[in-house]
Design a protein that fits this description.
Elements (H helix, E strand, L loop, with lengths): L24 H21 L6 H8 L3 H8 L2 H21 L6 H18 L1 H7 L9 H20 L9 H12 L14 H17 L4 H23 L1
Helix pairs in contact: 1-2, 1-4, 1-6, 4-7, 5-7, 5-9, 7-8, 8-9, 9-10
Length: 234
């Protein structure tokens, strides 16, 4: 059990998103146990269905401790979600990929695969990820796509008149709607929806680039069109 006199409500643990500097290994472990339990309960009951009393029981701490560490349920759950997103997108960012357009396609695939593997968790989060209160999570996702677009810029492939940040925003809006593929699975298979998302990105990039990016986008458009046409004939 965690004793409330071991954690100051105004100390590092009370503020989600801050670093863990100054915490003991025991405090870090307890904090991670609480956040892990929170994510499990979100998966089972949905974001709004989690109660602090149940979370205290699941993580082996007192109810008073939860409030001392995280102030309220909303703050605790958003911390749990944000830190998982930060970890996942950091892994994506650390992957070495030679060209920005290929990085964009990799991000789309990686996010879709993570969503597929944690489908219940993703479904539970869908109603809340568009709220203003999750702006930090949105910023994490946007930054990953932004870095990929800027990689294309460093390669010198954007045409001179292109506003890089505008293109980055447009691409992000195309690939994400609260973190899910833009086309619903019942309209076409999940895999085909993923290909259509890449098609949209390729169409945007082909119109504003030259060099490798333009060639790669053109090839992708041809390949994906063939896949979509084959699927529509079935």
């Amino acid at each position: 059990m965690v004793h409330t006199d071991e954690a100051d409500a105004h100390g590092p643990l009370a503020a989600p998103g801050r670093g863990l500097k100054g915490l003991t290994q025991r405090q870090i472990h307890r904090r991670e146990s609480i956040l892990s339990a929170a994510r499990e309960l979100i998966t089972q009951h949905g974001f709004e269905g989690v109660t602090m009393r149940e979370l205290a029981r699941a993580s082996g701490v007192t109810l008073k401790t939860l409030y001392a560490l995280f102030e309220n349920k909303q703050r605790l759950l958003l911390t749990a979600v944000e830190e998982r997103f930060r970890q996942q997108y950091q892994l994506i960012d650390e992957t070495t990929i030679d060209h920005g357009i290929d990085r964009l396609f990799y991000i789309i695939d990686a996010v879709a695969e993570t969503t597929r593997k944690s489908a219940d968790y993703a479904k539970a989060l869908a109603p809340v990820l568009s709220h203003d209160s999750v702006s930090a999570i949105t910023a994490i996702r946007k930054a990953t796509y932004h870095r990929a677009v800027h990689q294309i810029a460093t390669e010198g492939d954007f045409l001179d008149w292109v506003e890089i940040d505008v293109i980055s925003t447009v691409i992000y809006s195309q690939v994400t709607v609260v973190g899910q593929p833009r086309l619903h699975a019942r309209e076409m298979s999940r895999r085909l929806a993923l290909e259509v998302t890449k098609l949209e990105v390729a169409l945007i990039l082909r119109s504003v680039t030259s060099g490798y990016t333009h060639t790669r986008a053109t090839d992708a458009i041809r390949e994906i069109q063939a896949k979509v046409q084959a699927a529509l004939r079935r």
